[in-house]
Automatic annotation (TrEMBL):
GO terms for cellular component: peroxisome. This is phosphomevalonate kinase. Keywords: ATP-binding, Kinase, Nucleotide-binding, Transferase. The keyword Nucleotide-binding applies. GO terms for molecular function: ATP binding; phosphomevalonate kinase activity. InterPro entries: GHMP_kinase_N_dom, Phosphomevalonate_kinase, Ribosomal_Su5_D2-typ_SF, Ribsml_uS5_D2-typ_fold_subgr. It comes from Tetrahymena thermophila (strain SB210). Pathway: Isoprenoid biosynthesis; isopentenyl diphosphate biosynthesis via mevalonate pathway; isopentenyl diphosphate from (R)-mevalonate: step 2/3. The lineage of its organism: Eukaryota, Sar, Alveolata, Ciliophora, Intramacronucleata. Signal peptide: none annotated. Its EC number is 2.7.4.2. GO terms for biological process: farnesyl diphosphate biosynthetic process, mevalonate pathway; isopentenyl diphosphate biosynthetic process, mevalonate pathway.
């Protein structure tokens, strides 16, 4: 890659997430969830091309999103006069990127005269967002794998949220109209447009701001065009003690998160008294876990607190599993309950384990002390006796915790990133 291009390229990134407590409770504004930013990231950088004469005379530009890792492109034509976004009928559809384009043009850029060139938004992601079973056999890079777009199995790290935040953030930076709060608001709005409903929003908030005690925004936030409303919330940091780390177990299956969330939400809406009990129980568990974590200053403190953490973990899992049973969906499937129980009971280095986020079969999340290795946990997982299960393979991965949200890569990281993709 030419040094001049290397010096000019600005690569932005955002972290993935794991919700270790508060699944479904954070659908309510009165509840909090504990969301941890992870160092698996989505990346985006912008290149430009001169507009063609016909485009210039019609005052139109092109925004093209390019993902080499899933060998796809999405092309949108922008009419700078009417602010209309259009796409050829023969083009593959991507509701998230279409929504990104719309909110950027309609609300993200104050002065459309800045848009004088066609824009390419180049998207990359770390490999763990998708199961290894989704990788193509032929690979062009040792770092960024190529995935089969027709056979993508997500691992539950929040790829949809990350692609929204990474692309929107890079565009706002390019247009010099960036602020963290603005990125958060527009990303949540783009997600609302893409999915035609308001979700919990914790994954987007974590990708923008990093690890936090998350509280949902007011559902009517998008009913006004007053962008001052995007400053609706106070960021409360959440820190896992440095004596703990996160291990994920990829189950190589995946769940329909939208179905799970839809059924649980329907149950909570139709049963307000049960919903209130659920919310109060989840809030109590979240407050207690924060209290315990804040008192851990050493490995000795951690070991002293293990029994308390495990008991709290059991209480939260019971609440989380029960709400699924009542809603007739598997938030913590029985087979995963058995696996978590065996791991927590038999490995002293494990302190906490859940089906994170919305639950289901995406993955398991464990908090362990720093002495436990991937190899040791993988050996234990491989030895588990699992009866009558569709789970054929479980892959252990250690995840680095990230306190940073959306940010610009430094020069050294940018140089390494660009060498890995070209």
């Amino acid at each position: 890659m030419q040094d001049s291009l290397l010096n000019q390229t600005k690569v932005y990134c955002c972290p993935s997430k794991v919700l270790i407590m508060g699944g479904y409770a954070i659908l309510s504004e009165q509840c909090v969830g504990l969301s941890v930013g992870l160092n698996e990231k989505f990346y985006a950088f912008i290149t430009t091309q001169d507009v063609q004469n016909q485009q210039q005379s019609n005052q139109k530009i092109i925004i093209k999103f390019i993902s080499k890792q899933i060998e796809s492109e999405w092309i949108y034509e922008i009419d700078l006069i009417s602010k209309q976004v259009s796409q050829s009928e023969t083009q593959a559809k991507n509701p998230f990127l279409e929504a990104v384009t719309k909110v950027v043009i309609e609300e993200g850029v104050e002065d459309l005269s800045k848009l004088t060139k066609n824009i390419n938004v180049n998207i990359f992601h770390d490999n763990r967002f998708y199961s290894s079973a989704s990788k193509k056999n032929e690979q062009k890079s040792n770092y960024f794998s190529i995935f089969d777009k027709d056979n993508l199995h997500k691992t539950g790290l929040g790829s949809s949220a990350c692609v929204l935040v990474a692309t929107l953030g890079s565009l706002l930076q390019y247009f010099q109209d960036y602020a963290d709060e603005k990125l958060h608001y527009l990303s949540q709005k783009a997600n609302f447009i893409a999915q035609k409903k308001i979700g919990s929003g914790f994954d987007i908030a974590t990708s923008v701001f990093g690890s936090q005690v998350y509280k949902r925004f007011p559902p009517d936030i998008f009913s006004s065009n007053n962008q001052q409303q995007y400053k609706w919330n106070t960021l409360n940091r959440f820190n896992i003690p440095k004596q703990l780390k996160i291990m994920m177990i990829d189950l190589q299956i995946g769940s329909d998160t939208r179905l799970l969330a839809g059924e649980v939400k329907k149950y909570l809406d139709n049963n307000p008294e049960q919903a209130q009990i659920f919310y109060e129980q989840c809030n109590q568990k979240a407050s207690k876990l924060q209290e315990i974590f804040s008192g851990i200053q050493s490995i000795e403190n951690l070991k002293e607190k293990r029994e308390s953490i495990i008991e709290l973990n059991k209480q939260y899992r019971d609440v989380f599993k029960t709400i699924g049973i009542k809603a007739k969906v598997e938030t913590e499937p029985d087979i995963l309950s058995d696996i978590l129980d065996q791991i927590i009971i038999e490995i002293p280095s494990v302190y906490y384990g859940v089906c994170p986020g919305a639950g289901g079969y995406d993955a398991l999340c464990l908090l362990t002390d720093n002495s436990l290795t991937v190899e040791q946990l993988q050996a234990k997982v491989d030895s588990l006796k699992i009866l009558n299960s569709s789970i054929k393979e479980m892959v252990v991965q250690e995840m680095e915790i990230s306190q940073q949200g959306f940010h610009l890569l430094d020069e050294i990281s940018t140089s390494q990133f660009l060498k890995n993709i070209f």
